[in-house]
């Protein structure tokens, strides 16, 4: 069971803003008013800067995850968010059992994308309320990315003291369902020394008698996603032979941070190339996109750090005030003239299908994108799991 946190800002649900001081609130309010005014002026044509053209992306993330034939295996999704993991498993040929997600708005996106899926949202999607025994013996893979805020470098790293820590709930589901494989994903902060004891006592010890567990880190850029995005994975196999057959998915692409081998692999595109922007002689992977739902307040910025800002500046791309679509971005030129991102651009940078039905408000859509596992990374992982489970078929 989770414990109630005591540190400031961790007693609220993960998707609510932190409790701010009056001064902090006033500063944020002033910034919001200034940018809303600039946006209104731009839309009213009062902006002196010229529009930037609407560019067509060169990267189609679906090319990174060609749909495979049904493999006869089933996957149940917990903490499904906007569906990054679900897309990866679906395109790798897994049957979709159900998705559980507490935010009704996120569940609505999954239903809109896949009316044929069983999606539980809101109270009925709250994993704390579910009796998982009904799925026992019916699920090959149970996957989930419990909220990462308790462990994220961008947060306060209160771990188990944070009310948002849902990893024990994931473990409860694994124990009740006993899938052949579980896949648990989180921010790489969870793999640091600070959380070593937590990982041992909360994930490894409760499950190691029934599962052979592997822990490793994957970077989405190794699978063609134009973004540096590292995630830690815990993959557990109930069967020892299947566990021995499992291989961590090898990179399918090389990029500016690739080390050693892989020279023959296709190159992961940089931000400018992926979005189809004109060449400037400078291109690179996108810094990790931050979620619009985390941090002190909801935001339409994808900026994750000071070093990220330097990189965005070099790329000539403006990471704040993301626009709802490319037409809106083109008419609302950033103060410094840099290219303004839109939601469809962020989908591409995260490896989502360009038409994935995330919608306004922009901060919420960015929350789903920035919280997700990049689908091509999930796809390669799903494939590696499928190969270990039924090697003859694949
Ligand atoms: C890191 S995101 C998961 C992203 C997802 N794996 C993907 O690839 O898009 C964590 C999700 O857990 C959801 N969540 C948090 N508490 C929950 C609960 N008690 N029951 C169900 N979902 C919950 C959040 O709303 C959030 O969407």
TrEMBL record:
Question: Gene3D superfamilies, per this entry?
Answer: DNA Methylase, subunit A, domain 2 (3.90.120.10), Vaccinia Virus protein VP39 (3.40.50.150)
One Gene Ontology biological process: methylation
- Give the source's domain of life in one word: Bacteria
Show the active-site residues: 148
Q: What is its EC number?
A: 2.1.1.37
Q: Which UniProt keywords apply?
A: Methyltransferase, Restriction system, S-adenosyl-L-methionine, Transferase
Name this protein carries in UniProt:
Cytosine-specific methyltransferase
Q: Which organism does this record belong to?
A: Sphingomonas qomolangmaensis
